[in-house]
Amino acid sequence: MILESEPLMDHRPPVTVKGTREGLTFLLDERADVERVCTYLETLITGETGKLFEGPTVDIYVDYGKRSLTPQETWRILDVFRKRDNFLLRAWGHLPEARDAASRRQPGTRIQHIYHGLVRSGQPLSFDGDVVIIGDVNPSAVVEATGDIYVFGRLLGIAHAGVAGDETAVVAAAEFAPMQIRIADVVSRAPQMRATMEYAYLDGREMRVAEMKYFLPWHKLRKRSGREERR
User: Fold this and answer.
1) Over the stretch 108-123, which tens digit does the pLDDT of each residue have?
2) How would you list the strands of the sheet with 198-203, edge to edge?
3) Are 116 and 219 contained in the same domain?
4) What residue stretches are annotated with the Septum site-determining protein MinC N-terminal domain (predicted)?
5) Domain ends where: 76, 105, 134?
6) Which residue, 55, 70, 96, 160, shows the most beta carbons closer than 10 Å to its own?
């Protein structure tokens, strides 16, 4: 099965869906604006064609190409997929790497993991690469990653990004009130939880917390500083 959204002004459709034995693969045009992708995607899965996606739980794989997404863009896209209760996200990224990452990952390749659900108090989680957690991280839960940590929910536990020494790693959450934040070997406590999305990062050896709206200019500086090469 192949579904494509209708072309707009002779441009390539920003979303293509392919059905396989494993589930559904969503191919997002890496050259298209993220908001345009989300608009097409919402129409595709919730409009008239949305009836095609009704039924039992189905595994989905989302390939957004080689583009670099900000946390806001990541959460915007994920929020669209959450509109369908029967979608279960299995892979997220550039799929040639994401699907077979465990068996053929090359040294230095960054993996992006997706974790669904609540992280319970006292529960430890560890990831090699970046991780997106769709759910809350309860007090005393511990999340570690060699890369970035993004929480699409409340971060109330302990988060340690860059555990292998990556000082350019970040910790971000929709509601930011962790018991403790660690980036590489720098430890800090976060301020009182606020409703705005925030992220923690290192400025030299000092940890700082900023609203997510400031992430994009900082992220561009992070890439220029050589993080892409270290990945």
Assistant:
1) 445 677 787 899 999 9
2) 112-116, 130-134, 149-155, 171-176, 198-203, 206-211
3) yes
4) 15-90
5) 105
6) 160
Domain boundary among the residues 105, 134, 149 is at 105
Sequence letter at residue 93: G
Q: Which pairs from 6-10 meet CB under 8 Å and 24+ separation?
A: none
Query: Between these two residues, 106 and 144, which has the higher pLDDT value?
Result: 144
H helical segments located in 21-131: 34-46, 71-81, 95-98, 101-104
SS3 content of the chain, % helix, strand, coil (to 5): 25, 35, 40
Sheet holding 58-63, edge to edge: 2-4, 15-19, 24-28, 58-63, 87-93
What is the token pair recorded at 159? 């988060």
Complete DSSP assignment for 131-192: EEEES-B-TT-EEEESS-EEEEEEE-SEEEE-TTS-TT--EEEEEE--SEEEETTEEE---S
DSSP-derived letter for residue 48 is G
